[in-house]
Specification:
homodimer; 325 residues; alpha/beta; Nucleotidyltransferase, domain 5; 2 domains; five-stranded mixed β-sheet; 39% helix
């Protein structure tokens, strides 16, 4: 019997990525196109359906060879209803029944998953999470996303808002986050807030090599911070260490909440390599309790930008496995 | 066919409680004896086996009428191995294979569960958690315990240490907790630490009606704090509000982590009634994000001191349901 194959689609505000993945978790094709989000939902949905077709063709298959389609979508959404509620980076989308639209256009069973959950499921299914049944993933980019696998199952929660780990409060009464809360992990440890914290310190007059960067480019990025920190800049070192410290707090808190074997770090900030991993591990080891020896292993995810579409394909595999579609 | 019946045993440092519960979640008997913990594990295990027999007899049944036994046990333990590792309040216990010992002595299939998880499962199975599939419980007593149900399943985690919610860090670098961490929820919001925070403020010279309590009894309890707060004492009001504030932080953090429909509060501190519930709800509502309307309902648990043994019986039901025993 032929191996079952799944199409995964990762819908982003800038690009739509997709591909075919088989049940052995092997990627058979990989395609990417601009989202053209400004042209509105109908246009984007048409592009997505076309992409499904292209991905199938490039894998050397026909639609008959595909078991199901999985979509990872940003913003608030409902897995149960298959609806995108109101994604901040897709203008004009409101309560769009994306799952059923793609199902109609492709004629294939389709499932819809939150993009951060899909990426975490991708790593669990085909990446750095393989071999464990209990995993947490932090995606460190412009924002901080999360995903939780517990006992081999994707944790979605009652409101389909599970694992919004960037909005766990790590500093009560702390920095205002874009979500309206104060002291969120994201408001300290995301790439954008890391840059912003450095910028605020420079603007407040603290000496740093980052002043020149700020004057030249009008902003300070987290890459600027990590580079300056690696070169011994005091301010940058402090800001970066604070980022790592709050990520360690979040790791310890997830240790005590869902008690995973492994915590994965993904997203653009992992480009900092050991400058990110080492201090997080050190802070977490210093900070955690001594009552039990259950601090999870903290490692990098391995699928990179493919995690989204591979995870979406994996979500389709899962939905079929559980008889959901 | 007769309804299947389960014996639940709640092993505490002071008392052992037990009873028979049927599959319709009806309590058929209820017994309690002193633990006599100072006499060591063999003695206590014998008492537990005797208690199983008494509970069966008082339910008007014979051992043949019992499907399985569940034990809720304190301290670090392994559900998978059925072993109590090293409970702080049971002297002389170390790596005791409690599950198999009780199984041998009673001749009944037996399962072992962490006591906080058992209590949460009890509320889910037979109490305030009925009707939802996603629930979190905080048990507020001398310490702060936790339990998580996600998608109808008890979350145990990889190391069997899931839902140690009292040790989530709510104030990085904050008060030293008994577990060795700084800034744990428990170090602010447990009954003992609530009393201790008030005591420290009194000892530091702050005016309060609690000074007289402290001088008379040598300590300040959380009941003293809540009573004084209810009577308008400024210091007590501030300390109590801080307790409620940190509990609200923990509620919001679990909203974003496992995204439950309902958060239950259990344990001795719930005796404070609305003086506890109202400020937690108010703080959580003020503090939570506006990005989605997913703040869980925060309510009291309903099984009281019976949650432990009912949950242990429910754990036996669950273990049979899942073919584990």
């Amino acid at each position: 019997m032929a191996r079952r194959c799944f199409v995964g689609i990762d819908l982003g505000g800038t690009n739509i990525k997709g591909g075919v993945v088989d049940e052995d978790r092997k990627v058979l094709s990989r395609v990417s196109i601009p989202t053209e989000a400004s042209k509105g939902p109908d246009h984007v949905i048409k592009l997505m359906a076309d992409l499904v077709g292209r991905a199938i063709k490039e894998a050397g298959l026909s639609p008959k060879g595909i078991d199901a389609v999985g979509i990872g979508s940003p913003g608030s959404m409902s897995h149960t209803q298959g609806i995108i509620i109101k994604p901040p980076n897709l203008p004009g989308w409101k309560n769009v029944p994306l799952r059923d639209r793609i199902k109609e256009l492709t004629g294939l069973p389709t499932t819809l998953e939150n993009d951060a959950n899909a990426a975490a499921w991708g790593e669990y299914w085909a990446g750095a999470g393989r071999g464990t049944r209990h995993m947490v993933m932090f995606t460190l980019g412009t924002g901080v996303g999360g995903g939780i696998i517990t006992d081999g199952r994707l944790l979605r929660g009652h409101f389909d808002n599970g694992a919004e780990l960037g909005h766990m409060i790590v500093q009560p009464g702390g920095r205002l986050c874009g979500c309206g809360q104060k002291g969120c992990l994201e408001a300290y440890a995301s790439a954008s807030y890391t840059g912003r914290r450095a910028q605020e310190a420079v603007e407040a007059g603290e000496p740093s090599v980052l002043r020149e960067t700020f004057e030249r480019t009008g902003q300070i990025t987290s890459e600027d911070v990590v580079k300056a920190a690696n070169n011994g800049d005091t301010l940058a070192g402090r800001v970066w260490d604070e980022t790592c410290f709050y990520l360690a707090v979040a790791c310890v808190n997830m240790q005590h909440a869902t008690n995973p074997e492994r915590i994965l770090l993904a997203g653009g900030m992992t480009g900092a390599c050991n400058a990110l991993l080492d201090p997080i591990r050190r802070h977490a080891a210093e900070m955690t309790w001594k009552a039990a020896d259950d601090l999870p292993e903290i490692i990098f995810a391995t699928l990179g930008n493919d995690a989204g579409f591979i995870g979406a394909a994996g979500a389709a595999w899962l939905a079929r496995q559980e008889g959901e579609i």
